[in-house]
Amino acid sequence: MIIFRDPTEIPAGFGPSAVAIGKFDGVHLGHRAVIERLKADAAASGARAVAVTFDRNPLAVLRPQLCPEAVVTLERKLELLSELELDAVLVLSFDASLAAVPAEDFVQRYLVDALRASTVLVGRDFRFGHGGAGTPALLARLGPDAGFAVDVVDEVFLPGIPRRISSSWVRELLAAGDVAQATAVLGRPVTVRSEVVHGLARGRELGFPTANLAPVSGVALPADGVYAGWLDDHTSGLRLPAAISVGTNPTFDDVLERQVEAHVLSEEWLELYGHDVSVEFTAHLRGMVAFDGVETLRAQIAADVAQARAVLALA
């Protein structure tokens, strides 16, 4: 998959393209339905399958006080789109200048001139251009003269659940600690990827050493609590079962920033400092609480480890 960071990087003669536009935050099942439709349209017309997305949520520029945390980082979003076997992604830097571009100019500049769009796919509620004036109806009006057809993709639902799949729903599920349902909506496990860094070594002192992940700013984490899951060590290639903690460790009240820690469920502790790892959340075990002493905490961690092993079906 080719990644264009600016329209000027697109070579002359690129296209024709079937183009899907969206934030694609989380690349959830709704986004995947759009991409699958995009690839089908591209294959039917012999066009390239291209996604157009943004380097941040437009609300970060337009109404920053209302901008939610991202479901995934931009880098992870591009990885997930790459897994869907697109031909290319155009990442637009959303700043005040782009926000001021009229919708008609956006269509001409990016869809027609840069990508030679033959088909444009959007969700029914997608808006673009200055003041959000760009709508599926506007695209349909401009399409005939500009040389592209418009394909509006309907909302996607999980079986038996009337709520449409959306990034907002994913964030709500994460805030509730419901990683199992979030996994269903995403169509893939909930993960956090970062580097293992040195912490306060308190887990080691308690007999349950943990891999402490460097904070990833601006990305939604599951609610504070304890989870069962997996640690994927991209440095060594190992996949290891783990009991995972998210929060600030209220028993000691000396951790100022929420952190993700993973205790590997193996007989020997592995030195993971400096390793690039992903923590995958499988099930929520309990909320985060303050305990009245170290021994009470140690006993609870032992119970958490036993429960995590049971949930993960470990011998």
Question: How is this structure best described in words?
Answer:
By secondary structure, the chain is α/β, with parallel strands linked by helices. It folds into 2 domains: 13-153, 3-Layer(aba) Sandwich (Rossmann fold), CATH 3.40.50.620; 189-311, Riboflavin kinase-like (Elongation Factor Tu (Ef-tu), domain 3, Beta Barrel), CATH 2.40.30.30. The chain has 10 helices and 12 strands. It has helices spanning 29-45, 59-62, 74-83, 96-99, 103-114, 136-146, 167-175, 179-186, 202-205, 294-311, and strands at residues 2-4, 17-21, 48-54, 88-92, 117-123, 149-153, 190-197, 211-213, 225-233, 239-247, 259-264, 276-287. The radius of gyration is 22 Å and the shape is elongated. The chain starts with a strand and ends with a helix. The mean pLDDT is 92.
- CATH topology type of the largest domain: Rossmann fold
Q: What do the pLDDT scores average to?
A: 92
CATH architecture of the largest domain: 3-Layer(aba) Sandwich
User: Which spans have pLDDT < 50 for at least 5 consecutive residues?
Assistant: none
Supply the helix-strand structural class.
alpha/beta
Number of domains: 2
N-C termini distance: 41 Å
List SSEs in N-to-C order: EEHEHHEHHEHEHHEHEEEEEH
The gyration radius over C-alpha positions equals 22 Å
- The CATH class assignment of the largest domain is Alpha Beta
Q: How would you write the strand order of the largest sheet?
A: 1-4-3-2-5-6
Q: Helix segment count?
A: 10
Cα shape: elongated
Count of β-strands = 12
Beta-strand percent range: 25-35%
| Proportion of residues in helical segments | 25-40%
Largest sheet: 6 strands, parallel
CATH superfamily of the largest domain: HUPs
